[in-house]
């Protein structure tokens, strides 16, 4: 890998899906160009590279586009093999992939998408459902500094970008307390650990601006 | 260490069919346990506490859930024979992308087309045909989605084959007319031993769909 690698990331500052890619690139020390996309005014480049979904993140590596955040993370890990983010053991890898899917599908759905369309009581019920789902991660964290074990891994990037540094901001905007103090000691410890990792904290959207954005997204999802 | 492999699956499941195909391609011997996902047995709950769904692949007592995750696991563990995913990271990323497409975009209209009525049904039919066409475009002139080799995306899609006849019947369309090249691809896949062994009879699937439609009040 002696020649200059061309790495470009198309992302959106508030998107947990693109933020997690930035975290991975920083963890691996990979230099990249960043292109900020807009939800409403998608660039011709984005539309050309991702015609099917028209979404971020898009990673462009030496002219080739890789799409879907989990797919991009795995691509990064396989291409730049130092500081691995996926476990070596196939069973552990399958668990990381399973929980990553849980975060981006069920937790994101119950913890945000469905909430936007519900009223206060409905949101409280969804908050309870979300707590039940996050409890699976709580159990995985017992005895570990990170979901990846001793260091930040694939699942930390997925769950970290999504829950503490995105959904929690949405919940604050909605006036909901989802992560109750008593039930999530491991989660809270994990978030504190994440906050000590530069590659993670460098890539977190600024809080107040993010809460405002999440409130805007509530309106957007509600009317869709 | 003895390799003990068990698959909890339900005969009509297109997801279970994928896993069966992958196991067969690798020549892995396993115990098949017919598991009705509506009956939450202690084993199902123990092995898939989060979703309580099939298929569940159990390898030496450890459960692996979600069919595409199972296929990657099978490929990584039984890596000395018949690679299912390409080795090149970019090619692999393309295969994974299409796997995601099938699960996140194709799946919904694929069941709504037989399980819904009225506007929802019309929308599902339109979307399903669009997605079939997208997949046909992706296939292009290759013999398989994997290129020369029957691979990950082929398995992900051919798992639905038993349901194609039901989709055509209740969606009132013909794949031969809409996506003739894709139909040629299915013909190449269904002569493979792994696929033959893993498919359900399409007419049995239609009967099963009829029962579900009655239960849903669609008939």
UniProtKB/TrEMBL annotation, chain A:
Cite the InterPro entries for this sequence. Answer: Glutathione-S-Trfase_C-like, Glutathione-S-Trfase_C_sf, Glutathione_S-Trfase, Glutathione_S-Trfase_N, GST_C, GST_C_Tau, Omega/Tau-like, Thioredoxin-like_sf
GO-annotated cellular components: cytosol
Q: Which residues form a coiled coil?
A: none
PROSITE patterns this protein is in?
GST_CTER, GST_NTER
One of this protein's GO BP terms? Answer: glutathione metabolic process
Q: Does the keyword Transferase apply?
A: yes
Give me the reactions it catalyses. Answer: RX + glutathione = an S-substituted glutathione + a halide anion + H(+)
- Which EC number(s) does UniProt give? 2.5.1.18
Leader sequence segment = none
Top-rank lineage group of the source organism: Eukaryota
The record's similarity note reads:
Belongs to the GST superfamily. Tau family.
User: What's the protein here called?
Assistant: glutathione transferase
Its source organism is: Arabis alpina
From TrEMBL, chain B:
Please report the name of this protein according to its UniProt entry: Glutathione S-transferase
Q: List the GO terms this entry assigns under cellular component, sorted alphabetically.
A: cytosol
Q: For this protein, what is any one GO molecular function term? A: glutathione transferase activity
Major enzyme class: transferase
Keyword terms of this UniProt record? Cytoplasm, Detoxification, Transferase
Output the InterPro entries linked to this UniProt entry.
Answer: Glutathione-S-Trfase_C-like (IPR010987), Glutathione-S-Trfase_C_sf (IPR036282), Glutathione_S-Trfase (IPR040079), Glutathione_S-Trfase_N (IPR004045), GST_C_Tau (IPR045074), Omega/Tau-like (IPR045073), Thioredoxin-like_sf (IPR036249)
* Biological process, per Gene Ontology: glutathione metabolic process; toxin catabolic process
Q: Which family does it belong to?
A: Belongs to the GST superfamily. Tau family.
EC annotation from Swiss-Prot or TrEMBL: 2.5.1.18
Q: Which residues form the GST N-terminal domain?
A: 3-82
Q: Kindly state which reaction or reactions the protein catalyses.
A: RX + glutathione = an S-substituted glutathione + a halide anion + H(+)
Q: Which PROSITE patterns match?
A: GST_CTER, GST_NTER
Task: Pinpoint the GST C-terminal domain residues.
Answer: 88-212
Q: What is the lineage of its organism?
A: Eukaryota, Viridiplantae, Streptophyta, Embryophyta, Tracheophyta
Key word Amino-acid biosynthesis present in the record?
A: no
Subcellular location, record wording: Cytoplasm, Cytosol
What's the domain of life for this entry?
A: Eukaryota
Where it mainly occurs, coarsely classed, is cytoplasm
> What function does the entry list?
Is involved in the conjugation of reduced glutathione to a wide number of exogenous and endogenous hydrophobic electrophiles.
């Amino acid at each position: 890998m002696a020649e200059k690698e061309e790495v470009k990331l198309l992302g959106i500052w508030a998107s947990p899906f693109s933020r997690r890619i930035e975290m991975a690139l920083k963890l691996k020390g990979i230099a990249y160009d960043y292109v900020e996309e807009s939800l409403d005014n998608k660039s011709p480049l984005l539309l050309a590279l991702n015609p099917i979904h028209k979404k971020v993140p898009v990673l462009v590596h030496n002219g080739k586009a890789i799409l879907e955040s989990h797919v991009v993370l795995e691509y990064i890990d396989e291409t730049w093999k130092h500081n691995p983010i996926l476990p070596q053991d196939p069973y552990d890898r399958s668990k990381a992939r399973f929980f990553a899917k849980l975060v981006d599908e069920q937790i994101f759905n119950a913890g945000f998408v469905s909430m936007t369309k519900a009223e206060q009581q409905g949101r409280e019920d969804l908050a309870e459902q979300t707590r039940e789902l996050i409890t699976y991660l709580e159990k995985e964290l017992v005895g570990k500094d990170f979901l990846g074990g001793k260091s930040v891994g694939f699942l930390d990037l997925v769950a970290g970008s999504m829950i503490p540094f995105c959904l929690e901001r949405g919940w604050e905007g909605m006036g909901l307390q989802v992560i109750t103090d008593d039930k999530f000691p491991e989660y809270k410890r994990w978030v504190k650990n994440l906050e000590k990792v530069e590659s993670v904290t460098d890539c977190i959207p600024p809080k107040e601006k993010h809460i405002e954005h999440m409130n805007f997204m509530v309106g957007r999802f509600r009317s869709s | 260490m003895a390799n003990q492999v068990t698959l909890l699956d339900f005969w009509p499941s297109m997801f279970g069919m994928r896993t069966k195909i992958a196991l067969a391609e690798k020549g892995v011997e396993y115990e098949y346990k017919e598991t009705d996902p509506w009956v939450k047995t202690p084993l199902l709950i123990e092995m898939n506490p989060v979703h309580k769904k099939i298929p569940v692949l159990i390898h030496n007592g450890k459960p692996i859930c979600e069919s595409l995750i199972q296929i990657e696991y099978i490929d990584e563990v039984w890596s000395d024979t018949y690679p299912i995913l390409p080795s090149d990271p970019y090619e692999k990323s393309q295969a994974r992308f299409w796997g995601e497409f099938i699960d996140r975009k194709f799946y919904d209209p694929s069941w709504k087309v037989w399980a819904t009525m009225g506007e929802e049904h019309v929308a599902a039919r339109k979307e399903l045909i669009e997605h079939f066409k997208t997949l046909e475009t992706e296939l292009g002139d290759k013999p398989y989605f994997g290129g020369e080799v029957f691979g990950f995306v082929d398995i992900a899609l051919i798992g639905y084959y038993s349901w194609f006849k039901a989709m055509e019947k209740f969606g009132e369309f013909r794949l031969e007319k809409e996506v003739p090249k894709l139909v040629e691809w299915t013909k190449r896949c269904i002569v493979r031993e792994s696929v033959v062994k893993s498919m359900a009879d399409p007419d049995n699937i239609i009967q099963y769909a009829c029962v579900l439609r009655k239960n849903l009040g669609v008939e």
